[in-house]
Write a structure and sequence with these properties.
It contains 8 helices and no strands. With 181 residues, the chain is mainly alpha-helical. The protein starts with a helix and ends with a helix.
Length: 181
């Protein structure tokens, strides 16, 4: 009986460690599902911001070991399928966005919040331009820039609200890593 308890305890510890490793992806999945949830606000679906860009940016800058470019790619596929965007557009945008954010990691890591937010402003503007361009190419006509711009501005306004749970989870993970070290 005692040996069985020891096995169960170690299994729980392994499962808890694995859950902590995957928690950035789980939080990103929750934000993705929240972003595509119906809101019943007239006209909101056309200006719905790509909220998933916030955790992709955060994890690319602060924890690329827990959230890789493959994760960004898969979340892009998921958003394409859930949102009805032509398949591959969000996938490409999220992958390029992750790679650009990761390339600026050394520059952004350890900087004040406003500086990192400005980095997000610049990179997300590029991501929105890419998405606008590829959607326009897909439909063979230019889609309204104003809608994309409004969506981007909504994303910028939501950034502090969405980065807060990412930062709290990051601090929790750092604390748990210090406990295990």
């Amino acid at each position: 009986m005692r040996n069985n308890f020891a096995v169960n305890t170690s299994v729980w510890k392994i499962m808890a460690a694995r859950l902590r490793m995957e928690s950035p992806k789980l939080l990103t999945a929750l934000i993705l599902l929240f972003s595509v949830a119906p809101t019943y606000l007239p006209g909101y679906s056309s200006v719905r911001p790509a909220l998933t860009l916030v955790p992709i940016f955060y994890w690319a800058v602060y924890r690329p070991d827990r959230f890789s470019v493959i994760s960004a790619f898969l979340f892009g596929v998921a958003l394409d399928l859930l949102d009805g965007t032509p398949l591959g557009i969000n996938t490409f945008v999220f992958t390029v966005f992750y790679l650009l954010a990761d390339s600026q990691r050394r520059f952004l890591n350890g900087k004040p919040f406003g500086f990192v937010w400005f980095g997000f402003v610049v990179l997300s503007l590029g991501a929105y331009f890419l998405k606008w361009l590829f959607v326009s190419i897909n439909y063979a006509r230019f889609t309204p820039v104003g809608i994309a711009l409004l969506s981007w501005l909504l994303l910028l306004a939501a950034y502090p609200l969405l980065v807060f749970p990412c930062a709290k989870l990051h601090l929790y993970l750092l604390d748990k890593e210090d406990d295990n070290a």
